[in-house]
Design goal:
This protein has 320 residues and is mainly β. The protein is built from two helices and 22 strands. Helix 1 crosses helix 2. InterPro entries: Aminopeptidase_N-like_N, Aminopeptidase_N-like_N_sf, M1_APN-typ, Peptidase_M1, Peptidase_M1_aminopeptidases, Peptidase_M1_dom, Peptidase_M4/M1_CTD_sf.
Length: 320
Amino acid sequence: MSSVTSAPTVKLLNPFVPKAYDLRLHVDLADWSYRGEETVVLRRVEGTQASRTVRLHYSPTMAIHEVVGATILSRDEDAGTLQLCLDGELGDTHTVAFNYSNGIREDMRGFYRACFKTSDGVEHRMAATHFEPTSARCLYICQDEPAARADFTLHVSLPRCMESYTVLSNGALCAREQKGDTVTHEFETVPAIPPYLTSCFVGELEHLGTTACGIPVKVYTALGRSQEAAFALKTTAFALEHFEKFFGCKYPLSKLDVVAVPDFPIGGMENWGCIACVESILADERTSSVSALKRVAELLCHEVSHNWFGNLVAVSWWEG
């Protein structure tokens, strides 16, 4: 669990809870900003008292420009919650859409800046996410609780000048379209995922890849460092095959990525399908000490194991 401090939180008791998120981000690393166009499908909770009032988590730094399907009644900046009144006739599901903008953070939580320098001394901009335990709300409006699982679909648009950049998320990339001055990356929907396990990475990255359990496994690094990822890749593939046999349950997603992030607040994070780790996993098997390789193997095996114990089966709340 993350040691990074997050906003105070209390459990939300809603008559409608998120069933699916469709999130469209327009990211510009040149000015460290993004716009979000988000659609949330809510489902009625059986046995709850009929009510139009719903609370969702958000970041007070967001500028919310438009809400469709609901009206904002109040904002609690300390708790990071919006109180909404759902519009129109209510059925078993209700759709709310948000249009907002925000900055890319500097404090290594939520959607944050992670720069790196290549061997020629040139600095390259990158954006990364770290959400555990309660920082998914820093990127998008959600019910930011571990039990609040919902389908998650992500689209990321970049300026055409960033068309060579890699974009990663939990689902596999299923389409990439260039239209005018924009390049849009569309990802497969990941089913029933809690917000803290969702992710998004944008940057000039390269990778090494292999196949394990019939799916592509890749380790992504900053430019110029992919050849240092061989041991991490071999370990990740081994761990995936081992835990699939150990748990007797197939890995449920269509790919597994590991991202070596230049600035990351903890050792690793088990984002489903898109694990994030510190760059120290880039250890050369030929020159690194046995103890250094052991630390890398322990970290990667720990994070891969969470794909079953922690992702498929997870806690319902952060406290006992």
